[in-house]
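Budget justification aside, the reviewers requested a transparent look at the raw inputs and outputs of the sequence design task funded under Objective 1. We therefore reproduce one unedited record. The lines immediately below are the structure tokens for a 159-residue chain.
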């Protein structure tokens, strides 16, 4: 049942009530008037019930719309997260790695908060990448040794 059906029933009952009121106002015997009053009372109860049903239906439709939006959001998020897989990097970090053509890593802490932040390379010897969302650092690449420095002889012309 939808709003139009309830509204139609409500209007039909209202019209019937009006007809009964007209009949009541006409000169009829006392027994007929008592039955008309009883019918009017019952029609009023039916109108109240229909009004209550209409309000309940409206509330249920609003709840359904809210749940549908939440389900759509959850499905969209699930699709987006499905583009990543949990991986253990050469540097020892456990992060999410994209499955797409453009390989990149994402912060697992931020994904738990329903956000995807691509880890950015710090370009240091430590091999760490930084999350732009929460600031965490992850050892993605293996630590590199610093370059060896060859001391220059004291009598070098380059000094």
């Amino acid at each position: 049942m939808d709003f139009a059906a309830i509204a139609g029933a409500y209007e039909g009952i209202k019209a019937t009530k009006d007809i009964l009121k007209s009949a009541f106002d006409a000169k009829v015997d006392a027994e007929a008037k008592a039955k008309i009053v009883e019918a009017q009372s019952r029609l009023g109860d039916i109108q109240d019930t229909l009004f209550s049903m209409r309000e309940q239906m409206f509330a249920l439709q609003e709840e359904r719309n809210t749940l549908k939006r939440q389900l759509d959001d959850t499905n969209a998020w699930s699709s987006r997260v499905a583009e990543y897989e949990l991986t253990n990097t050469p540097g020892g970090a456990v992060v999410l790695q994209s499955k797409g053509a453009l390989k990149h890593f994402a912060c697992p802490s931020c994904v738990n908060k329903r956000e995807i932040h691509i880890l950015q390379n710090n370009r240091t010897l430590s091999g760490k990448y930084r999350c732009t969302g929460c600031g965490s650092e992850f050892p993605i690449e293996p630590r590199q040794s610093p370059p060896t420095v060859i001391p220059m002889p004291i009598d070098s012309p380059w000094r």
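The CA atoms of residues 93 and 148 lie 27 Å apart. The helical segments are 3-25, 30-81, 108-112. Computational costs for records of this kind are itemized in the attached budget.
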